[in-house]
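Cross-check.
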Amino acid sequence: MKHFSKSQINSMDKIFRLNLINSCTGYKSANLIGTSSDEDILNLAVFSSITHLGSNPALLGFIVRPTTVPRDSYKNILSNKFFTVNHIHVNDIEDAHHTSARYPSKVSEFDMTKFESEYLNGFPAPFVKSSKIKLGCKYLNKYEIKENDTLLMVAEISDIYFENEYLNKDGWLQLDKAKSVAINGLDGYALPSLIDRYKYAKPKK
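Predicted model, tokenized:
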């Protein structure tokens, strides 16, 4: 089995280390965050750090990298409080990845890709029309992670949209039916398939 020590990791080529550390922790969620600026310029960006924080209240979190360079999604969320989280469909991978390109703040990624924006039930941030599972969220708080100058953003889930066929009787959303992709590292996209589901685990059972 191949082994890298801490000293070897620290001395690696920057890109090699970046790819290794981003992929070694496993598959991550693949989502597009939709926001709007104070000038009504729509922003769309791919995020692989969105994760469940709790179900009561319904919370999610995601990481914002150091704000030493412009971060339009971050700026818009702080200003307007609302944003959307949109699952990336298998047919939208190329354009989804393209939203990671650094366009000027006045350029909307919706205009530079095939994605269409849509507004649902008066929610103030844009959803991605082609996304099969989408969430409307409200920003609540941010927490500084001092070890690497990143920020943990915390938000509540206020709206959930999906096709009824994805919902199981117990409330579980079957993501493989929606063909939601996952991210391996920074730029590897995968289509997971369900292997099995198990009952709530109890000791010795």
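The two ends are 33 Å apart (CA to CA). The longest strand covers residues 133-145. Passed to J.P. for a second look.
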